[in-house]
Amino acid sequence: MSVTRDDIAAAMVRAAAALRAAKDDLTALDQAAGDGDLGITAGKLADALDAYAGSEADDLGKFLAQAGMALNKAASSTMGTLAATALMRAGQTVKGQSTMTAEQVAEAFRAAAQGVMDRGKAKLGDKTVLDALFPAADALAEAVGAGAPLGAAGQKMLDAARQGRDAVTPLQNKIGRAGWVGERTKGAVDPGCAMVIAAMEGVTGQ
Amino acid sequence: MSVTRDDIAAAMVRAAAALRAAKDDLTALDQAAGDGDLGITAGKLADALDAYAGSEADDLGKFLAQAGMALNKAASSTMGTLAATALMRAGQTVKGQSTMTAEQVAEAFRAAAQGVMDRGKAKLGDKTVLDALFPAADALAEAVGAGAPLGAAGQKMLDAARQGRDAVTPLQNKIGRAGWVGERTKGAVDPGCAMVIAAMEGVTGQ
Amino acid sequence: MKRFLNAPEAYVPEMLDGLVKAHPEALKFGEDVFSIVRADAPVEGKVALATGGGSGHLPVFLGYVGKGMLDGCAVGDVFNSPSAEQMADVTRRISGGKGVVYIYGNYGGDVMNFDMASEMVDMEDIPVKTVLVKDDVASAPKDEADRRRGVAGMVFAFKVAGAKADEGGSIDDVAAAAEKALAHTGTMGVALSACIIPQVGKPGFSIGEGEMEIGMGIHGEPGMKREALAKADEVAARLAETILADLAPGAGAEFAVMVNGLGATPPEDLYVLYRAVHDLLAQKGYGVHRAYVGEYATSMEMAGASLTLMMLDDELKRLLDAPAQTPFFQQS
Amino acid sequence: MKRFLNAPEAYVPEMLDGLVKAHPEALKFGEDVFSIVRADAPVEGKVALATGGGSGHLPVFLGYVGKGMLDGCAVGDVFNSPSAEQMADVTRRISGGKGVVYIYGNYGGDVMNFDMASEMVDMEDIPVKTVLVKDDVASAPKDEADRRRGVAGMVFAFKVAGAKADEGGSIDDVAAAAEKALAHTGTMGVALSACIIPQVGKPGFSIGEGEMEIGMGIHGEPGMKREALAKADEVAARLAETILADLAPGAGAEFAVMVNGLGATPPEDLYVLYRAVHDLLAQKGYGVHRAYVGEYATSMEMAGASLTLMMLDDELKRLLDAPAQTPFFQQS
Ligand SMILES: Nc1ncnc2c1ncn2[C@@H]1O[C@H](COP(=O)(O)OP(=O)(O)O)[C@@H](O)[C@H]1O
Ligand SMILES: Nc1ncnc2c1ncn2[C@@H]1O[C@H](COP(=O)(O)OP(=O)(O)O)[C@@H](O)[C@H]1O
Ligand SMILES: [Mg+2]
Ligand SMILES: [Mg+2]
Ligand SMILES: [Mg+2]
Ligand SMILES: [Mg+2]
Known about the structure:
A: two-stranded antiparallel ribbon, globular, C: alpha/beta, binds magnesium ion
């Protein structure tokens, strides 16, 4: 079973719908732990994904990388920039290809997570999006490696992301705007985690 | 029965107490028909009168005129300036004297009213302090002319001032800040009338 | 009250003390803190300009004392006229031998006190001419223009008259320049919230969430109409159209435009308003010679804005463009 | 929301359009309205300075583009970083052959995007140096100074670095001047009310009547403490003492002082605060070389203020005193 440009485009549209639906929740979370703009960012990312999904590109690498550049232009707050970085890094792993295997999807996902880490210079446990992304990347790779079909592997990925989110919820944010809120972030869901999980729910349809 | 510097000083102190007591009412009236500072002005005039009352002066003329200058310095909003003008003009009528008769009190009062009219260039019926001052000046002169003692004449003066105030209450303010409020001032007591009546009540003890 | 204050009675003197401490190269006190003049006053051989009025409107009035604009200012308590004595003191300290022009807003207390002051200094042979600012087109109809209030348009009068004095104009020239500027100037404001006089401690009126008052004065004097808060473009058009109807400019007229914030309105919002005014003037074939966007005549923490338009000819352009250096207004 | 707006999505582009229409002699657009550079850019043979950041803080950032300060600015949506692409566009348009220095506030989104932009233009052989502004002493303890936010102190960095570039300094000199200014600068703010992002439409937090938040950031980032609103003199002393403890000045130190209004706070109140700061510095034997009182870095309609102190040596004095002409900052 291989993933095509059209599969990715359809996933973008599903992610967009999920992000749009989560706008108000994300605003509320970011008002508590940041500056309250994450709902706006999610809305802009959704619009940009919808607008981009119909674009043509020579190969999957360019298709993903150019999506990243479109996202950066549309939404350049922290999460917008990290989302853009993730797509650009994912694109680098499938340069010149017109389809990708499940293993390659898992690799691309890991590269995306690593890209977010490189760009944002946060560490695991700082209570950021990384704490959802890395467990999710691990779970996806493991399930795919064990021969699970993408649908089932996606469920594992999502579960791991939610667990990652929940694991850091009791902690204090250490970086970004939420880092300045300090103590008061203990017990609050990290807004960035909430956003990537919403996007993953859209992609996996779960 | 003649009026001395000490009588005038005592009247100033009584007026001051009455003005101070009226502060909040005057603020409320001026908030409705102007800029809300008349209570502050009344308080400043009261403080200035109290502070001045102990001053020495060569004669009654100077005693009154210098009081006017002190008031102008302390409170130079419209009503403060008019009060100052009134005292300066009153002083001019008793230059060089060390006492004044009841007739001279009435004359000084009329000169004060005329001074306020000259300085402010308002007309009777514009709904200003003039509409309390002129009837009061007339009543005082008439009563004194008919031989009434100052106490009884003062009562007539006060009644006339109140009637003057009530007569213009239904009208619209035509001048000053209240002039800009227009229609909405119909039925509202003119703040300036309220202030001079408070002062007269203090002076007459009624 | 969401404000930084010590004792409310000390508000104005402390503010003035801070202002002169912050700008010692520009300003100095006269007889007391309520009388403030240029640090280099009197400027000999130049007509001097004085203004005055209540506090609570910075940069009006004091903020325009400096090179190219005013020579001195008498300062009153919040929304209160200064005393005649203070005005006379300022007049004496700035008089440079060519006379003094008073330019101030048309408010009863100020008029009475400036009149008294000019009577005082007249006895000391300082000639004085008075120019009353009455630019608020919302405050009375055109045929009762003498009843109008003076608001942000006074800044253009200060600028133009100050430049005329710097050019060596006589007392009559300077007063005439101010009159000319004002004859071509109209202002209109819109308020979204009230302000608080520190000594009173509570607002004198309120404007509901989602409401605006079109035509309100800078002390909260009532305007033409209380209505639903409209979009920025509509508000800008309302202000501009009303002023233009009053000024009745000829085809191709050129303007100085001032979009003034009353206090709490963000500079960003003022530029949104300016854009609408600019486009509207352009559509009508008018030009913008100079734009001023910011806080020029305020009402403490009041939210709102005013628009001022001054129709220019070559002389007004030259005088407006001349340099000026004051604590709140720099142009080179 | 007591604001003048059209469609909330159009807020920033309309504001920018208005700004460039009001100041055509000073500013021009780059690739789109979010990229704005000096009208005479690129200035050949001079190190160029760029900044960028979210909207909602005027005059920060854009208002300091002009002679003697910055060459260009990438503008984001309200409280949002501009994109790397916009920053790269600004960089290309201002590059005058001697390299470009980025000076901007230490916020995650901005850092990531400026890093991406410098990677992009590096491939085009435009050398870039980055100076991060981290002047908010309330945002992290001194031993974690790298976590501090950038607030009003950036204006001093713009001024000093801009003057160094005008003097003919190299890219290293200009970056070093900015770093030096910032090493001697501390800022601390206090907020009395919240502000509203137009697209959100409601405040993200609230501060009760009679309360203040000491140390709050210019996007409403939480401060050190929520407490009862104190008198102006006490507030000023709290800010000044905290900054002084951080800067640890030597005896007789001389300062540039900035008392900055966050938006809704009247200029009068800022001078009341300035007075207290001035007197406190004088009591400690320190001098004030220059005072800046007004709105320099705002948060739309937020009520509040910040204090910035920069300790000066002869070089910093010279660079600070140099002339500058921008739409929001003039000094001659
Ligand atoms: N350095 C970082 N690396 C990775 N993720 C980060 C970093 N800083 C912040 N985040 C994530 O970004 C989220 C906030 O996103 P956003 O609202 O766009 O930020 P901002 O408004 O501060 O630009 C946080 O909840 C966190 O998950
Ligand atoms: N031209 C005038 N002549 C006489 N009285 C006047 C005049 N203008 C206003 N007043 C009186 O002054 C009162 C308001 O006083 P005050 O609050 O001191 O005015 P302001 O605040 O406008 O300076 C009015 O109620 C009216 O009685
Ligand atoms: Mg955010
Ligand atoms: Mg009044
Ligand atoms: Mg008044
Ligand atoms: Mg943000």
